[in-house]
Amino acid sequence: MKKKITLIGAGNIGGTLAHLSLIKKLGDVVLIDVMKGMPQGKALDLSQSSAVEGFPCKVEGTNDFSQMKNSDVVIITAGIPRQPGMSRDDLLETNGKIIKKIGLDIKKYCPKAFVICITNPLDAMVFVLQKYSKLSAAKCVGMAGVLDSSRLKFFLSKELNVSINDIQTFVLGGHGDDMVPMVNHTTIGGIPLLDFIKKRKIPMTKINKILDRTRMGGGEIVKLLQRGSAFYAPASSAIQMAEAYLLDQKKLLPCAAYLNGQYGLKNMYMGVPVIIGSKGVEEIIEVPLSTAEKKMLKTSVKSVQSLVSAVNKILN
């Protein structure tokens, strides 16, 4: 029996998510959006590519949120995107109300689904989603770290002139300007990054510029596009998470997961390395942090906590 994947939000990310899901043959797809015609049009367009791509899965578009019923996976991109000059935090009130409503719908129609939130500001939105959907923490995650890590890998591969496939790294903390790229846990073909750049005589200042570019990666794309925000890389990142769940891959991925004591944090969502398999988040991996990393993480935690506090006041 084919799996059912519901995508809430049929904009650029939603359409790309649908395309990737179908090409990878992960399951039947339902595209939901409040805008009449948009999900139906994209579903029809995608359906007409099935003869070319050879995928056996169906795709439907609807404005009816009850069509998410009995979904195996739900990926949420609904909400307003960032515009030039906007921070992720500027989206808080509008997107908070949207995510609250979606959370209540998930509770009603598909309480056993594995749910991935992409909507920004990410860490606060996934907190809201879990609160109102009543999903178990293992089944409700945010997509951020996979994307941020992918950006970091790309920038490093270009600067160091090495294959992107040889780079292992991840980003810790909130999905914002205070995220913590884990330099001490970054390797190039198994060689620690700091040893690699020393051998190549690459100054740390170049690496620091890459770290800053990673932190501002979303904003850079928003500025270039002028209208809208990134969608190809975010969609690929979320699909990797969904695939890990559907295929029980036990894949180690950095995601916004609910912390209950890990890293000394409780009752909050934060980007951390997790293992995703058929039970959802099956384990949160704790890694040792340097004094500098602990300090940066503390700053990131404060940013996330202030957003969660603010959105709770808006919604309560």
Describe the structure.
The protein has 316 residues and is of the alpha/beta class. 45% of the residues lie in helices and 20% in strands. The chain has helices at residues 12-23, 38-47, 50-53, 92-109, 122-133, 145-160, 193-200, 204-215, 217-225, 232-246, 291-315; strands at 4-8, 28-32, 59-62, 73-76, 114-117, 140-142, 167-168, 171-172, 180-181, 187-188, 191-192, 251-260, 266-277, 280-284. A hairpin with a 7-residue loop joins strand 8 and strand 9 (180-181). Helix 4 (92-109) packs parallel to helix 5, helix 4 crosses helix 11 (291-315) and helix 6 packs antiparallel against helix 8. It is globular.
Detail the poorly predicted runs: none
Q: Tell me how many strands there are.
A: 14
Q: Record the strand order, biggest sheet.
A: 3-2-1-4-5-6
Oligomer: single chain
Largest sheet: 6 strands, parallel
Shape: globular
Tally of alpha and pi helices: 11
Overall pLDDT metric: 95
Share in helix: 40-55%
Distance between termini?
41 Å
Rg computed from alpha carbons, rounded to a whole number of angstroms: 19 Å
Secondary-structure element string: EHEHHEEHEHEHEEEEEHHHHEEEH
Question: How much of the polypeptide forms β-strand, as a percent range?
Answer: 15-25%
Structural class: alpha/beta
